[in-house]
Design brief:
The chain is of the alpha/beta class and 427 residues long. The chain is built from 13 helices and 18 strands. The protein has two domains: 22-51 and 55-217 and 395-424, Alpha-Beta Complex (Quinone Oxidoreductase, Chain A, domain 1); 229-364, Rossmann fold (3-Layer(aba) Sandwich). It has helices at residues 109-117, 162-165, 173-176, 199-202, 220-223, 226-239, 254-264, 277-284, 298-304, 322-330, 352-356, 373-386, 404-412; strands at 66-74, 77-84, 98-106, 129-137, 149-152, 180-181, 194-197, 203-204, 207-208, 211-213, 246-250, 269-274, 291-293, 311-316, 331-339, 361-364, 395-400, 420-424. Strands 3, 4, 5, 6, 7, 10, 17 and 18 form an eight-stranded mixed β-sheet that branches. A six-stranded parallel β-sheet has the order 13-12-11-14-15-16, sandwiched between helices. Helix 8 links the parallel strand 12 (269-274) and strand 13. Helix 9 runs parallel beside helix 10 (322-330).
């Protein structure tokens, strides 16, 4: 049987869907190299850029026994299936837990890497940039009720271990556990109609942890960016940028634009590099007006913009190991390189003398920081209200859940006109 992503139904009725072969779904395609756009033409995409204003239903629909979900079944194999709603056998959820009806879930590059690399066992339901409405509340939950609009982080640390005391939360064993599921092994679950949020994510003893209320005037689409904004803000804070510094951000996909926009807020001068003029045009809407053409000599351009020194900081927002050398060459002696998208194990070459003799620093940042949850929420909410950080502008396509396979295909094969791809399980 030909490998590929296809859709089928578990039950009495099969749902036909196009298979997507392995040759069209590879990790290498998620890189800074030129990417052919012919794999899926825009005329075949039924999605359209949609940002809905928030609405609060008079009453939530009754919780069904089953739901639709995009289920990962193996490498490059995702199927839209009918699965049980993630409840206990008695139709309830556990103490301290909540059930959330998903409205919006963005597709993250890490979701794609898991699908393409087979790094996680199957079956699973991925998706973690999610926002929706609480449909059920378990015993002992305080501060939340049915009908509350929320987003959920899928990782929250214990707050007590050695790594938490050192504030490297992503290395905490509790943090590494996924606290949201749509069934099967917990994997976020946002590519489904409902998710179950575990008690340590909801919060204990009256303290909220990773379940964040969304104000009524904030669209779910904007709120779905809270988790990725946290990861980017964490990286920018680690750099300790100063107003007289120049930052080069390599890659201007949604994450690259977030990193660049947040870096600009520190007062630093920000250079952005990408292959697509269309992405630079979107970045310009966030005040990023120093574009570099990635088809040219980015190192020379960075030095030309800094009196020959090189940038003080280079942020690598693309998971391509070859760009590490580019970033190291583009920074000045004593500068810093931040790896943000290097989440796949491999080997990369760079000059070790650049670290020793030129005193350049190579560093990394991974996932979110619990310590800045509140600050990030305020930034996302207030940025939407005053227009300075309206992230709904980064969403180029919204797909219904039934078309999740096509959504994943488009996200895996970026085009000049595609940015953040979102799935809307409720249609």
């Amino acid at each position: 049987m030909t490998q590929g992503i296809h859709a089928s139904a578990i039950g009495t009725t099969a749902i036909g869907a196009e298979r997507i072969g392995v040759e069209r779904m590879s990790v290498e395609r998620i890189s800074a190299e030129p990417i052919a756009a012919g794999k899926i033409g825009t005329e075949r995409i039924s999605a359209r850029p949609i940002v809905t204003l928030p609405t609060i239903p008079a009453a939530l629909p009754a919780i069904p026994d089953v739901m639709r979900a995009a289920v990962y079944r193996g490498v490059n194999d995702v199927r839209v299936e009918t699965v049980p709603v993630p409840l206990d056998s008695d139709g309830e959820i556990g103490c301290g837990e909540v059930l959330v009806r998903i409205d919006t879930c963005g597709i993250c590059g890490t979701d794609l890497k898991k699908i393409h690399s087979g790094s996680h066992s199957a079956p699973r339901i991925f998706g973690h940039e999610m926002a929706g409405t609480i449909a059920m509340v378990g015993a002992s939950v305080t501060g939340f009720g049915i009908g509350d609009r929320v987003m959920a982080y899928h990782h929250i640390p214990c707050g007590e271990c050695y790594y938490c005391r050192k504030r490297t939360f992503a290395q905490c064993e509790t943090y590494k556990k996924v606290g949201c599921t749509a069934g099967f092994a917990p994997a976020g679950g946002g590519f489904a109609e409902y998710i179950r949020v575990m008690d340590w994510i909801v919060g204990r003893e009256g303290k909220t942890a990773g379940l964040i209320k969304i104000p009524d005037d904030i669209p779910f689409e904007q709120a779905s960016f809270i988790e990725p904004v946290n990861t980017c803000y964490k990286a920018v804070r680690l750099l300790g940028l100063q107003a007289d510094e120049t930052v080069l951000v390599i890659g201007q996909g949604p994450i690259g634009i977030l990193l660049a926009a947040l870096a600009r807020r520190t007062g630093a001068t920000v250079l952005t590099s990408d292959l697509y003029a269309e992405r630079h045009a979107i970045a310009a809407g966030f005040g990023l007006d120093r574009p570099l053409d990635a088809r040219g000599d980015v190192v020379a351009a960075a030095k030309a913009a800094t009196d020959g020194r090189g940038a003080d900081v280079a942020l690598v927002a693309v998971g391509a190991d070859a760009l590490i050398r580019t970033a190291m060459d583009a920074i000045r002696p004593g500068g810093r390189v931040m790896l943000f998208a290097a989440t796949q194990h491999g080997e990369a070459g760079f000059d070790p003398a650049a670290v020793c003799m030129d005193e350049k620093t190579l560093m990394g940042s991974y996932s979110s920081s619990f310590a800045i949850n509140d600050e990030v929420s305020r930034l996302v909410f207030e940025g939407y209200r005053d227009g300075s950080f309206d992230l709904t502008r980064l969403i180029s396509h919204c797909f219904p859940l039934e078309d999740a396979v096509a959504a994943i295909d488009l996200a895996s094969h970026p085009q000049a006109g595609s940015m953040k791809i979102a799935i809307k399980p409720q249609g």
